[in-house]
Amino acid sequence: MKISTKGRYALRMLYDLALHQDEGFVSLKDVAERQSISKKYLEQIVPLLNKSGLLRTNRGNKGGYSLSRKPEDISVGDVLRATEGSIAPVSCLEFEPNVCPRVHECATLYVWEGLYKAMTEYLDGVSLKEIVEKNSGDNGNDYCI
Question: Which domains are present in the chain?
Answer without folding.
Answer: 5-134 (1.10.10.10)
